Structure formats: C-alpha cells, structure tokens
Amino acid sequence: MGVAVPVRLKSIEAVVMAAHGRARSLSVDELDIVDEVASTVTNQIEEDWPVDTSTSRDGFYFTIQSAPGHYGYTILNDVDYVQYIHAAGTPAKPELWRTLIPRTVAEHLTPMLTRLRFAVADTQRALAFEAAKPKGKQRLSEAQVLSRSWRGRKVA
Amino acid sequence: MATRAGVTMSSTVDIGDIARRLNDAERRVFVRWERKILDRIKRKWRNWEYKGRPDGAPVNVSLSTWTSRVQTTTGAVLTVENLIGYAGYVHRAGLPSIAAGGKGVVGELVDEINANDVPKMTADLRAEVLRNIATPRRRRQVAGGRSPATEDTTIRIEA
C-alpha cells in the first residue's frame, strides 16, 4: 500500500495571490527552499526510522508541487508494508508513520513559511522591476524572471 | 511521431564484496552524495529562456519533478530521475537539439556527474565501508514488495 503525506502551503498560495494578483508558479528561489526543507524532513525521517532490512527506510522520497496556485511537497514511501511498521517495544497502533512523519514536518514548517514569505517578496520585487522597465529596454518575461535566482542580487 | 523522453540515471557504486546492507554511517555518506548530485542537477536546470511562453503559463515544472532514491540493502545504488515526458530533449537555446545530434542538458549533466561526483562518491563510500568493516552494529526488530498509498494511508497537512 505505501504511505503519502502531502504538505500543502495554502498560506503561501494566498501570499502570492495577494502580491501578484493571480496564481503563478513558484520561482526557482522559492522552489529551492521547499526542496531543501523536503529533503531535510525526508532525511530526518530516515534517521529516526527503525531498521531491519532497511528496504522500508530506503523507500522514503519526496516530490514537490510548484504549479500556479498549488504549492507544497509530499513525503512518500511505496513499500507495501511500511504503514504497519512500529518501533520495537511500542504498540502496533498508532503506526509509526502516522506520528513520525507529521511531527517531523511540523518541526520545520514555521521557519520554512517565514523564509518563503521573504522569497516571495524578493520575487515580486524582481517581477515589478522588469515590468517597469521602459519600452526599448531589454525586459525579462515573467517566465524568465521565475526561472532565475535573485538571491543576493540587488533589484531596484 | 511524438515520443516520451523521461530520464532515469542509475549509478551502482562498486564497494567491493560486502554481502550486507550499508550500515547507518555508510548510508549517511551515500545520502549526502545523493543530495549533492541532485543539487548539481537542479542548479543546472534553470535560467531557461521560455521563448514565446505566455505570462501565467506554468514554469519550472520539470525542475520540480527531479527526484532521487538510494537502495542500500544489497550494495549501493543511486537513482536520479525526471519522468516528465520531455526531460531528455531539453537543450539550451542556441545549442543543437537532440534531434540535430546535440547532447542536451541531460547529456552534459551525465558527463559532469561521471567526471566530478561518481569517483569521489565511490572513494568516500569505500573509505567508510573499510572503517566499519569489523565493527558489529546493533539491530532493531521491526514488524513485516511495492504499491502506492491509498486514502487510508494518506495524511494531508495544510499550512
């Protein structure tokens, strides 16, 4: 059966909608933040996972959702008995994945959201800068702005 | 004729004849390299021209679909993949397309990873295996093939 824990960043979707006026894809800098946190969360889950054959531990991976209006990441494990695993000496229910994964996600949520809000502000500044360039000046399209990293770059 | 060209890259690290799974310390070394290689790919997979793409159309789609996994139960296998149907065709503006004999971004990445990362990853992992070869490890008991999660085995989090 496997397990899945999708983490949807509705608050960031709302921030982008308010700042941009419509939904847009995550920029590269925003994606990097989600990616880094998803990776950290996955690694931490693996570190805390009980090991016997380690097949179930190897089965953890994440995917990222960055489409306009739908941001987040999903922690998955497709090993078909993973949902039954519990640490030795603990009761069979609740199963380990039901507590460990949400707890690990929660530990990293608030700092990620804070970083993302700053990153969204930087992206919007870059978009506004390009949009305000006078005609005749080379201007990056919205897609090109979102596909570049603006971290550490002074914009306007 | 349209074809799909997702990408799967696998590297089996030669760590000698150890007939056991990697232990925690060895696995950590391997996972660090997994992360480095995936980061290298993602850093290169950006700064697209998106010529003619209308404002509001999704972007960075194929960037977000790169994933990686390790397998450490028998030896050490790293798999990095992007199953989006056009990943294998991606090339930089101004360079030849795959159809015209160009390498594409994936081809460049394979060369870079093989030249820069695979030898160092192999050396690091071998060093860790040798360091641990005589050290017994504590094992933990755990209760109980592959298939996707169902609604019963999904927890949704919103923030």
If you had to describe this structure to a student in words, what would you say it looks like?
By secondary structure, chain A is an alpha+beta fold. Chain A is 49% helix and 14% strand. In chain A, strands 1-3-2 form a three-stranded antiparallel beta sheet. In chain A, helix 1 (10-20) packs parallel to helix 4 (96-131) and helix 2 (28-48) packs antiparallel against helix 4. Chain B has helices at 24-44, 61-64, 104-132, and strands at 7-13, 66-71, 76-82, 157-158. In chain B, strands 1-3-2 form a three-stranded antiparallel beta sheet. Chain B starts with 6 loop residues before the first strand and ends with a strand. The model of chain B is unreliable at 137-147 (pLDDT under 50). Strand 1 (3-8) of chain A pairs parallel with strand 4 of chain B.
The pLDDT mean of chain B sits at 82
Shape of chain B: globular
Largest interface comes to: A-B, 70 and 50 residues
Which regions of chain B are unreliable across 5 or more consecutive residues at pLDDT < 50?
137-147
- Shape descriptor of chain A reads elongated
- What string gives the helices and strands of chain B in order? EHHEEHE
What is the percent of helical residues of chain A? 40-55%
Structural class of chain A: alpha+beta
Q: What is the mean predicted local confidence, pLDDT of chain A? A: 90
String of helices and strands of chain A: EHHHEEHH
Radius of gyration of chain B over alpha carbons? 20 Å
Subunit organisation of the chains: heterodimer
Count the DSSP helices of chain A. Answer: 5
Largest sheet of chain A at a glance?
A: 3 strands, antiparallel
Largest sheet of chain B: 3 strands, antiparallel
Low-pLDDT stretches of chain A are: none
For the biggest β-sheet of chain A, the strand order reads 1-3-2
